[in-house]
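Narrative progress, year one. The postdoctoral researcher (J.K.) led the effort to move from monomer predictions toward full complexes, under supervision of the PI. The following entry was the first complex the group processed end to end, covering 593 residues in total.
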Amino acid sequence: MYLVGWLPISLFVMGGLGHLGQGRPWTTAAAFFLPLTSVYAFVCLSAWYVCRVFPIEAGGRASRAAGVHLIAGAMTSAIWVTLAEGWAATLDALTPGFGAMALHAEQRSLLFVVGVLLFWLVAVLHYLLIAFQASRDAETRALELTVLAREAELRALRAQIDPHFLFNSLNSISALTSSDPSAARRMCLLLGDFLRATLRLGASSRISLSDEFDLAERFLSIERVRLGPRLIVSREADEASRACLVPALLLQPLVENAVVHGIAHLLEGGTVRMAATRVDSVLTISMENPCDPDRPRRGAPGIGLDLLRKRVATQFGEDGAVRIDESSGRFRVEVRIPAVTGA
Amino acid sequence: MSETRLSVIVVDDEEPARLLLREYLSAHQDIDVTAECANGFEAVKAITERRPDLLLLDVQMPKLDGFEVLELVGGGITVIFITAYDSYAIRAFDVHAVDYLLKPFSAERFDEALSRARARMRSHDTRPLPVADLVSSSRPRRGPLERLLIRDRGEVHVVPVAKIDYIESQDDYVAVKTGGKSYLKEQTLADLEALLDGTRFVRIHRRFILNVARLAKIEQSVTESRLAILADGTELPISKTGYARLKELL
């Protein structure tokens, strides 16, 4: 490609400079200039390194790059002119009376100027190529980022419902079918309601805080069938907070953790407290549960909390915050997001 | 079918799960359920007192999980694990479980596990299943010990390793020192050393393993030997090789 691009240039140099030396046969001009320009085509590739080392950036470095190219162009061209002189002498020595030396002597300064200009042309092309590649890279990166974000969201959705919750619930239903059929039916209905709600809600949909608390409570009431009186739920949301919109199932990883890593490890159980308050434009939601500080740490609760942090960060940026406290047998997560109500 | 009667203990922290097991067991005339336990502590007590023929054991429970219960009561009991998590299966066969039931399971599947248990008991075979050999060779080692289980004078203690100050060897026992208390555990110091996290616990002496986090300073005594001074003022001797190990870690 690059060499094909050089073909018209060498023809132009040959035509222009060769024609100026009037009366000289075309063969002389061709024999002299064609090899010379092809060699220069390769020499000019070195401009690539200069361009790479001195990129043109947004801030004021352009003058330095221009200076460097001025010197590099002059030097390269000077070398070229010297090469041309040697080449002309060689041609004349091979073919006496060929007249290449005379041609060169006439056009030496013009050749130098053309050499410098060609070097700059190549440099400019290189800069264009670099800029083009940079923009393509940026595009690819942006695309990769959106794909990653979408994947994370999908993974988040899948991870929101722990399959073991389903297995345990099904086992409870299986147990209740013979001993307490109406309780088994109640459990089926609860489970159906909960699953339908979680399937309907996407990672980007928002629901009111009271709906979100309803979902969390429904989940906990299913777990209560399994854990019995060990699991107690309390809920407090002030008037102003209830209509605030929150990302759907934001609290799901928290209620799961509260059961799996909290209540389930306690002989006597305890209370899962959900609370929400709104002060001006800030909505604060908290989830608190007792826990056993000496519980085994396998099946890290970190995954669910990471998920929560990521969702808050991607949806609210600087305006969202997640705080996690574990001290003296209590585990508490506080989420602060902008208070927004549906229009 | 009923040659001898079979005593069974059911361990699960969920009421409905115990209900289901009781129902499935009620179909078998030769089985006596001698105890039902809702947590690991109860289970250890009941198993030690009654030595059942068969144990139906949940894995995830408060305080002590199913594997920890087994570790505390020792071997020689036929166990069927029951859990919603398939990820414990390999460990279950490592501890010679007869079967591994995944919740929810049918009465037929339960009966199958039961007859497998009966066959095992008839043959008095306590060797691991062949599958255990297969998986244990390819299985990555589990991480270092996180909690120490100690049965001392009929009581069960769960000590998180971070709370251990140091461990002292006493013949066939080790004394685990934590916050001024001392618990005796039937284990050798070398065995325990192998189970603990080598970056947090160092064998500083033939008779002592030290929790490095408790070390306040090292004192050079008049003779060649050195002393480790703990944060609470306790002094422990450091042997030459122990000092080399300690220095390498610090």
